[in-house]
């Protein structure tokens, strides 16, 4: 390597004649004789470009949020049209936005717990057990993810709107519409396949010997799953959990159609943001402020978990 | 006898089926049952006036009406006579959107993945910054781009008009809105592609690059002969997931331009349902969407098998 460098330098000196060159020309000549420099420059340019394009929309949204209501025409590319940090308080006083966030948070958490538990059992079976019909069942799981949410919507809508006498003691109205169940039941099922696939690959990589050892020690098969296999597959479980939480929290289709949009009826965060579209005036600055607040939970999750997600996807053998 | 002991004495096969029961129960209620019902609904006729939205059995008439452009909908699924402008036909919008968005997202996502795969000071934060759009709720992503292209608040509409690309109110024009939706989607989901491609990049054996350097391969040759072939399967899987997702686009459109302006197939299901109360037609649109997605998936699976055969 160092040898190569030295010969490069030598070549550079040899090929650098005493011609009078402009700055750009000189840089290009140098880049040609020493391509590593060009790669470095390209790398920093690309990094800068990607950072600018991904972060600018957030910055601009923040500028809109800071703008007072009557200054919205004056929002610039980089500057707000006035200064009104009070918007971040108004969103909680004008409507109970914290309640919407809580609803979304609860729905996403419950869905994640259900998905992780059910997908752990299924992933264990698909990853470690031999039985008849394995491939057919795995295919059945895969096929459900071909269908658009819309394909499930009509019957589910009827199902959740139906009055079921059995539910009366639990839910006053007797139907699941306007309850968190109407959102997290469909979403847990629809995002289940992804977690099943991630966990199947993870669980299948745990050596049989470890499970056998636990069994010899006297645990049951289920005990071995939850005490040995799941803890050893922690990155996979974390990845599946984080991805499920993010997708459910961010979901639009069922979240916007399964409640009437009132916070006490378990409407999720997206309805809260859309509530600022009043009848006479759309409060864009409050929508922007609400959006920034609503992004925070998932943003923090990404910051904390990004290393885990990347390693989880890598080890999950996505390459297969 | 305690239930756990009972479970413990079952054979492996019975044990497997019992553990799969919760997953399949959930899938049966939320996925299999509704799919069968939707298919049954799609074979009935529409009843827009009565309380029950379904009429008698009509076989595949709804599908035929959709494919010949005779269905009574605010937008056409497909108009073979081309009387409807292309960008108001759901099948065209969906396919164009899926192909263009996946193409750009793959290219940009690959670039981003190559950047965050490097070792450099502050990599952790650059990674977070590049991945974060993926975690943004659809409604917020829509809001950002809606505001940017809103003629009173945003600057982007003025800028695009100055360039002479967009008309007066871009969010009410089909082709302008299509571009806006496309850009918004690329902004968010390139990050997802980057994440999946990065996973592929990280599983490439670093020793291969040392070998390549010793044999005098340039960076470009290293990329072409090592990175690309080894990442290809992961890339195809990522593209498969993205294509399936892009073909179901609904939320982004609904919250920016609206389903009337940019009718995707999922959009058409909801407009048929809510605005015209044609439940049976809506069901057949939903099924046609699934069929189109299924065809795309088959193409990918064939491609995936071929690359795997190449690698092996």
Oligomeric grouping of the chains: heterodimer
As a percent range, the share of helical residues of chain B equals: 55-70%
The CATH architecture assignment of the largest domain in chain B turns out to be Orthogonal Bundle
CATH architecture of chain A: Orthogonal Bundle
The structural class of chain B is mainly alpha
Work out the strand percent of chain A. under 5%
Q: Any idea of the CATH topology of the largest domain in chain B? A: MetI-like fold
Supply the CATH class of chain A: Mainly Alpha
Structural domain count of chain B:
2
Q: Which structural class do the helices and strands of chain A define?
A: mainly alpha
SSE string of chain A: HHHHHHHHHHHHHH
What would your notes on this structure say?
The complex is a heterodimer of chains A (about 325) and B (about 300). Chain A is mainly alpha-helical. Chain A has a single domain, classed as MetI-like fold (Orthogonal Bundle), CATH 1.10.3720.10. Helix content of chain A is about 70%, strand content about 0%. Chain A contains 14 helices and no strands. In chain A, helix 8 runs antiparallel to helix 11. Chain B folds into two domains: about 1-35, no CATH class; about 85-310, MetI-like fold, CATH 1.10.3720.10. Chain B contains 13 helices and two strands. In chain B, strand 1 (about 45) and strand 2 (about 55) form a beta hairpin. In chain B, helix 2 (about 10-40) crosses helix 13 (about 280-310), helix 10 packs antiparallel against helix 13 and helix 12 (about 265-275) runs antiparallel to helix 13 (about 280-310). Chain B is globular and about 75 Å long. Classes of the chains: A mainly alpha (about 325), B mainly alpha (about 300). Chains A and B meet through helix 3, helix 5, helix 6, helix 7 and helix 8 of A and helix 1, helix 2, helix 4, helix 5 and helix 6 of B.
């Amino acid at each position: 390597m160092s040898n190569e460098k030295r010969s490069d330098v030598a070549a550079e000196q040899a090929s650098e004649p005493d011609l009078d060159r402009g700055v750009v020309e000189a840089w290009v000549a140098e880049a040609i004789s020493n391509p590593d420099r060009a790669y470095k420059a390209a790398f920093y340019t690309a990094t800068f470009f990607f950072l600018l394009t991904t972060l600018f929309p957030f910055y601009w949204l923040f500028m809109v949020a800071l703008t007072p209501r009557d200054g919205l025409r004056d929002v610039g590319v980089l500057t707000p049209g006035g200064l009104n940090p009070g918007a971040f308080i108004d969103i909680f006083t004008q409507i109970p936005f914290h309640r919407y966030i809580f609803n979304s948070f609860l729905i996403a958490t419950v869905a994640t717990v259900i998905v992780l538990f059910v997908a752990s059992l299924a992933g264990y079976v698909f990853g470690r057990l031999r039985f008849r019909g394995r491939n057919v069942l795995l295919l059945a799981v895969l096929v459900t993810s071909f269908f658009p949410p819309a394909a499930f919507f009509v019957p589910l809508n009827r199902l959740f709107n139906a009055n079921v006498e059995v539910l009366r003691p639990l839910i006053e109205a007797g139907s699941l519409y306007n309850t968190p169940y109407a959102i997290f039941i469909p979403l847990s099922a629809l995002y289940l396949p992804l977690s099943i696939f991630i966990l199947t690959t993870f669980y299948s990589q745990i050596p049989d010997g470890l499970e056998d050892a636990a069994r010899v020690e006297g645990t049951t098969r289920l005990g071995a799953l939850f005490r040995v296999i799941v803890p050893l597959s922690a990155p996979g479980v974390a990845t599946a959990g984080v991805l499920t939480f993010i997708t459910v929290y961010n979901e639009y289709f069922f979240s916007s159609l399964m409640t009437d949009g009132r916070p006490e009826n378990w409407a999720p965060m997206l309805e809260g943001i859309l509530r600022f579209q009043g009848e006479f005036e759309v409060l864009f600055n409050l929508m922007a402020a609400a959006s920034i607040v609503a992004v925070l939970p998932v943003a923090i999750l990404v910051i904390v978990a990004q290393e885990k997600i990347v390693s989880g996807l890598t080890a999950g053998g996505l390459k297969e | 006898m305690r239930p756990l002991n009972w479970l413990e004495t079952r054979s492996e096969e019975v044990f497997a089926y019992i553990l799969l029961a919760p997953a399949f129960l959930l899938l049966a209620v939320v996925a299999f049952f509704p799919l069968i019902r939707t298919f049954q609904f799609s074979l009935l006729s529409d009843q827009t006036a009565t309380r029950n939205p379904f009429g008698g059995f009509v076989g595949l008439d709804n599908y035929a009406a959709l494919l010949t452009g005779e269905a009574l909908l605010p937008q056409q699924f497909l108009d073979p006579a081309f009387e409807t402008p292309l960008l108001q036909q759901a099948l065209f919008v969906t396919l164009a959107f899926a192909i263009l968005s996946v193409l750009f997202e793959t290219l940009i996502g690959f670039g981003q993945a190559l950047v965050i795969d490097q070792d450099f000071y502050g990599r952790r934060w650059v990674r977070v910054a590049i991945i974060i759009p993926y975690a943004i709720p659809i409604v917020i992503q829509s809001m950002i781009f809606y505001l940017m292209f809103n003629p009173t608040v945003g600057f982007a509409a003025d800028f695009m008009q100055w360039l002479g690309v967009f008309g007066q109110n871009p969010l009410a024009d089909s082709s302008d809105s299509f571009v806006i939706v496309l850009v918004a989607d690329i902004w968010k989901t390139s990050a997802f592609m980057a994440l999946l491609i990065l996973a592929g990049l990280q599983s490439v054996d670093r020793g291969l690059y040392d070998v390549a350097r010793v044999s005098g391969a340039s960076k470009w040759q290293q990329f072409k002969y090592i990175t690309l072939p080894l990442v290809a399967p992961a890339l195809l899987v990522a593209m498969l997931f993205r294509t399936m997702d892009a073909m179901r686009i609904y939320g982004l459109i609904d919250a920016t331009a609206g389903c009337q302006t940019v009718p995707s197939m999922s959009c058409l299901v909801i407009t048929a349902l809510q605005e015209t109360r044609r439940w049976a037609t809506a069901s057949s649109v939903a099924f046609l969407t699934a069929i189109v997605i299924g065809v795309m998936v088959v193409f990918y699976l064939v491609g995936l098998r071929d690359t795997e055969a190449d690698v092996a």
